[in-house]
Structure formats: structure tokens, C-alpha cells
Write a structure and sequence with these properties.
Elements (H helix, E strand, L loop, with lengths): L1 H63 L1
Length: 65
């Protein structure tokens, strides 16, 4: 019985460690996703700025004609 109890405890300790590692990986992944989202938001802002600039340039071009 003591052998079974010890093996069970060891298995539970390994499971706890594995779950702790998984939590750490999930936190890292969430941080990475947040960084990706921020990069995408900046990209969208840059593209919106480019569109605005192009519209102004188009308007200026039309006025010169």
C-alpha cells in the first residue's frame, strides 16, 4: 500500500509540474498574441494614414488639372 501511495504522490507531483508548465506557456502565448494584436493595430493605423494621404494627393491632382 505504501508503494501505491508513493507512486500516486509522485504522479500527482509530476501532473502539478506539467500543469504549471502549461500555465506558463499559456501566459506566454497570451502575451505573444497581445503583441501581435498591437502590431496589427499599428499596421491598420499606418494603412489608414496612407489612404488619407492618397486621398489628399488625388484631390490635389484633380485640382491641378
Amino acid at each position: 500500500m505504501n508503494l501505491f501511495k508513493r507512486e500516486t504522490e509522485e504522479a500527482m507531483i509530476k501532473l502539478i509540474a506539467t500543469q504549471s508548465d502549461l500555465i506558463s506557456l499559456q501566459k506566454e502565448a497570451a502575451k505573444d498574441r497581445e503583441e501581435i494584436i498591437n502590431h496589427l493595430k499599428r499596421l491598420v493605423n499606418l494603412q489608414e494614414d496612407q489612404i488619407s494621404d492618397l486621398k489628399v494627393n488625388l484631390h490635389d491632382l484633380r485640382e491641378k488639372q
